[in-house]
Design goal:
The complex is a heterodimer.
Chain A: H1 4-51, E1 73-79, E2 82-86, E3 101-107, E4 110-118, E5 124-131, H2 132-168, H3 170-180, H4 197-248, H5 254-278, E6 288-292, H6 293-310, E7 314-319, E8 323-327, H7 328-345, E9 351-359, E10 362-369, H8 404-414, E11 418-423, E12 430-437, H9 439-447
Parallel strand pairs in A: 7-9
Antiparallel strand pairs in A: 1-2, 1-5, 3-4, 4-5, 6-8, 9-10, 10-12, 11-12
Helix pairs in contact in A: 1-2, 4-5, 6-7, 7-8
Chain B: E1 2-6, H1 10-22, E2 26-30, H2 33-42, E3 47-51, H3 59-69, E4 75-79, H4 84-92, E5 97-100, H5 105-119, E6 126-129, E7 132-135, E8 141-143, E9 146-148, H6 152-163, E10 169-170, H7 171-178, H8 189-200, E11 206-209, E12 213-216
Parallel strand pairs in B: 1-2, 1-3, 3-4, 4-5
Antiparallel strand pairs in B: 6-7, 7-8, 8-9, 10-12, 11-12
The chains are: A alpha+beta, B alpha/beta.
């Protein structure tokens, strides 16, 4: 079924037509009976009238009365077995047998309704006849008069039904529009006010489904975060006992080093999963404040400095004070992840250059390193969760979980920032550029 | 030094106990908040390590209750949560420091040393890095055993760097340590002092992190 509206219009019109046809048929029958009665009565009266005619001397050549030979009414008067008078259109032979009563006969090329009666006063038979067609014509005219306006009214009725059905289906249209304009992650219930009784059940069921869906999304969202959270204490246990074990054996024992490496990787993964969930745009309760990204970069570099120093890497921050509106925790995480990646993939003694400066569009952050870079055809994929360039056997043999850039992208989305990858000016390493829009354009798009 | 360890995870508690004992601490371990409050009443420790997630009453509640009778007891909070709000709540309840799980044992020991120093139980006033030695009481600085002359600001600058060895000090942070609020500071004052200091110290002792600040080795 394509459309309820079309269906209803067709079905209702067909039903109406059928009913009109049936009632017209019935009307035709009853009007036929009625006209039969009326016309028979007339014939009867006519016989009474003719009975009053005086007997006329029979002149065999002049029985015929002057008149219209095409008249639809005819008569014969037989006195003492002889035709004494007849209408202009009547034949010279009797219409039918000399028996009283109504009958139908054929003469003069027509079918006639005849009435024969013997006069009570003398030996006289009176025949009257009338075209049968008359009755049909009258009945047909009556029924046509009644049906014609209805036939012409049908299209009007169809149009009205179309409009009325459309009007009564408006709540359905509105519901469909509300559902189709719902954003993908919007699971808020539908409004239940002003809906007709028929739709209330649908809306109830939809809302019920939405709330169950939201609950299961919420469970899914929370699951990873909760699991990661619960892992923190056991990881602490591992770390503390590893520390004690290293004391008992020797800190340089290769077994201890492998164990430490494994625990560190697990720890990193757990923290990154927590960050990924905490910074997901639909989760994050952003607290946007005015801040200086350059100062924030200084802070993060100072904080991570021991790690760069451990790899003997040369790190440099250029640019100038860059005021912007952003979430401090999120931006710090973004910087930590970008610098962490740069540190990880830049070889011993390599270079890392960070540029933070205001530009005409807002604030731009660039992180360049002298690492191996990423081939351009991998640019899109690096933001996927758990994707690692070159797979787990990355040339840098660095442990990682492939969540770092997914988190960076979450945070960039929160700030409506654009991330582009490219080749750095230092030894063709990786260049990651994050462009933050200026505060006013940012708030503009917030309101859209 | 007696430490009260309040931690409901027995695996973690036994590991911590062992590690702390190796460092010469006398560790008393309890697993619930009520037991912790009772232990403090019985014999007050010098430092308390307190887990927030306890089975009976929250570590924060324990902290608030014990502050009534022991306002000075240094408390190091341990927690599996790391959000800023939790940190603020912990410090507002009167904790002296805050460590998020999972932590490195070295980090915990370093934090304990800070608390000990605050208690005055570490008497040494010397900071030694590489061949440089700085006495925070006499304000004497020795390079390879030889005393050198520093201006007041140069000394303060070196002290700030050496106290935070391994941690980059931004120019702004150093300025606030060297100059009183509102004092006129020329834009390159720190650079000038660093330049002068370097001439008196061993080469590459103070490293420049361009755009960020300065750091001395660990």
């Amino acid at each position: 079924m394509k459309s309820i509206r079309t269906f209803l219009v067709i079905v209702l019109l067909a039903t109406m037509t059928l009913i009109i046809f049936l009632s017209a048929l019935r009307g035709y029958r009853s009007s036929m009976q009625q006209t039969e009665l009326v016309f028979d009565e007339e014939l009867h009266d006519l016989v009474d009238l003719l009975d009053e005619f005086p007997s006329v001397t029979v002149t065999p050549n002049n029985t015929q009365r002057p008149g219209n030979p095409d008249s639809t009414i005819a008569f014969q008067i037989w006195d003492n077995g002889e035709l004494s008078q007849r209408s202009a259109n009547a034949p010279a032979t009797p219409f039918g047998p000399f028996l009283p009563g109504y009958r139908e006969n054929n003469f003069g090329g027509h079918r006639w309704r005849t009435l024969a009666r013997r006069s009570v006063r003398s030996d006289r038979w009176i025949f009257v006849a009338e075209h049968v067609d008359n009755r049909f014509r009258v009945a047909e005219e009556v029924i046509l008069e009644a049906v014609t306006p209805i036939i012409f009214g049908l299209p009007v009725a169809g149009l009205l039904i179309w409009i009325i059905v459309g009007y009564s289906m408006r709540p359905l249209d509105l519901l469909a529009r509300e559902l189709s304009t719902k954003a993908g992650d919007d699971l808020t219930p539908l409004r239940e006010d002003q809906t007709p009784a028929e739709l209330t059940q649908v809306i109830h069921s939809t809302n019920d489904l939405l709330s169950r869906l939201e609950a299961s999304f919420e469970r899914e969202r929370r699951f990873a975060a909760d699991a990661a959270h619960e892992l923190r204490t056991p990881i602490s246990v591992l770390k503390v006992h590893l520390h004690n074990l290293a004391h008992e054996l020797s800190p340089d024992d290769p077994n201890i080093a492998h164990l430490k490496n494994g625990i560190d990787r697990m720890n990193h993964l757990v923290e990154q999963i927590l960050l990924l969930h905490r910074t997901a745009p639909d989760q994050f309760m952003a607290n946007f404040i005015a801040l200086d990204l350059h100062t924030l970069a200084q802070e993060v570099i100072s904080q991570l400095y021991p790690e760069f120093a451990a790899k003997d890497q040369h790190i440099e921050l250029v640019g100038s004070s860059s005021q912007m509106i952003g979430d401090r925790f999120a931006l710090k995480t973004l910087l930590q992840n970008l610098l962490g990646n740069a540190k990880k993939y830049t070889p011993q003694g390599g270079q890392i250059l960070i540029t933070v400066q205001p530009n005409s569009q807002g604030v731009s952050l660039k992180v360049e390193d002298s690492g191996p870079g990423i081939p351009p055809d991998e640019y899109d994929r690096v933001f996927e969760r758990f994707h690692r360039v070159g797979g787990d056997r990355h040339a840098s043999s660095q442990p990682g979980c492939g969540l770092g850039l997914a988190i960076v992208q979450h945070i960039a989305e929160l700030h409506q920032a654009q991330i582009t990858l490219g080749s750095s000016s230092i030894e063709n390493g990786l260049l990651i550029c994050v462009e933050f829009p200026a505060p006013n354009s940012q708030t503009d798009s917030d309101h859209v | 030094m007696p430490i009260l360890l309040v931690e409901d995870d027995h695996d973690l508690a036994s590991g911590l106990q062992q590690a702390l004992q190796m460092k010469g601490f006398a560790v008393n371990h309890v697993a619930t908040g009520n037991a912790a409050l009772a232990a403090i009443e019985a014999e007050a420790p010098e430092i308390m390590i307190l887990d927030i997630g306890l089975p009976d009453i929250s570590g924060l509640t324990v902290l608030k209750r014990l502050r009534a009778g022991h306002p000075e007891l240094p408390v190091l909070l341990l927690t599996a949560r790391t959000s800023i709000d939790d940190k603020v709540a912990g410090l507002d309840s009167g904790a002296d420091d805050y460590l998020a799980k999972p932590f490195e044992m070295e980090e915990l020991l370093a934090r304990l040393r800070v608390l000990q120093r605050r208690l005055g139980s570490i008497k040494s006033s010397y900071i030694n890095i590489d061949t440089i030695s700085l006495d925070t009481i006499t304000q004497e600085v020795r390079v390879e055993g030889n005393s050198i002359e520093l201006s007041r600001r140069e000394y303060m600058l070196l002290k700030a760097l050496m106290e935070n060895a391994g941690r980059v000090q931004t120019r702004e942070a150093l300025e606030t340590k060297l100059y009183a609020w509102g004092e006129e500071v020329s834009s390159n004052a720190i650079e000038v002092h660093i330049h002068n200091l370097r001439k008196k110290l061993i080469p590459n002792f103070i490293k420049t992190i361009r755009g960020v600040g300065y750091v001395v080795g660990q």
